[in-house]
Amino acid sequence: MHSRDSRRLALQRLASLVAVPLFAPACSRSSSPEGDGRSSASSPQGSAPAAPAQSAAAPAQGASAAPAQAGPAAKVKLALNWVPEPEFGGFYAARESGAFAKEGLEVEILGGGAGVPVVQMVAGGQVDFGLSGADEVLTARARGADVLPLFAVFQTSPQAIMTHESRGAKGIADILSSGGTLAIEPGLPYAAYLKKKYGFNKVKVVPYDGGVARFVADKDFSQQCFITAEPIAAKRKGSDPAAFLVASEGFNPYVVVVITRAALWKENPERVRAFIRATREGWRSYMHDPTRANEVMAKLNTSMDAETFVAAAEAQRPLIETPETKEKGLGVMTRERWETLAKQLADLGVLEKVPPIDDLLVAAL
Question: What pLDDT was estimated at residue 8?
Answer without folding.
Answer: 38
